[in-house]
Amino acid sequence: MIFSGIVIILLTTACSAINANRQSKIKQGITGRVTIQSGNYFPSPNRPTPKPKGLMTVVYVYEKTNIIQTEIKDAAPLFKLVKSKLITQTNTDSAGYFKIALPIGSYSLFVKKGNAYYANNFDKQNNINVFIVEKKKVTTVSINDNSGTTQ
């Protein structure tokens, strides 16, 4: 009985800490969620499309990075090395949420996937997963690892 009470208290405290972390405010930077999809995503009238799940991982913030500043692992969107300047990194919570206070600027975001960096969004100049932070604004981002899906 005492053990189950302790477990409930610990779970409540952990959930409260996660919710408090999500709700705490930053005045300028990036906030978002990393999700992962896997399995069959072929449209089917008899089956609803599964929703992405939050991913507990590391988010790396680099200065704006072009594909020529990387070493591709086997094929993009996996990279074994990012040669631009690392600005900061943070862990996502158990549901994939994160937030990072940053100065004004353009940044490339990567997420840890095994022993590689993952980023699957490119602009016309082959800059990778670029997000802009403006003065006194928080940019909301969504990073979805869909490399394990069948579409």
Short description:
Helices cover about 15% and strands about 45% of the residues.
Helix content: 10-25%
Average pLDDT, all residues: 83
Termini separation (Å)?
49 Å
Number of helices: 1
Q: Within the CATH hierarchy, at the fold level, what is the topology?
A: Immunoglobulin-like
CATH architecture: Sandwich
Low-confidence stretches: 3-21
Determine the CATH superfamily. Carboxypeptidase-like, regulatory domain
Please summarize the sheet with the most strands.
Answer: 7 strands, antiparallel
Q: What percent strand? A: over 45%
State Rg: 18 Å
CATH class: Mainly Beta
Shape: globular
Number of strands: 11
Return the string of H and E elements: HEEEEEEEEEEE
Structure class:
mainly beta
Tell me the count of domains.
Answer: 1
What topology does this entry show?
Blueprint: H1 2-23, E1 29-40, E2 53-54, E3 58-63, E4 70-72, E5 78-82, E6 86-91, E7 97-101, E8 105-113, E9 116-118, E10 130-133, E11 138-150
Parallel strand pairs: 1-11
Antiparallel strand pairs: 1-2, 1-7, 3-6, 3-8, 4-5, 5-9, 8-9, 8-10
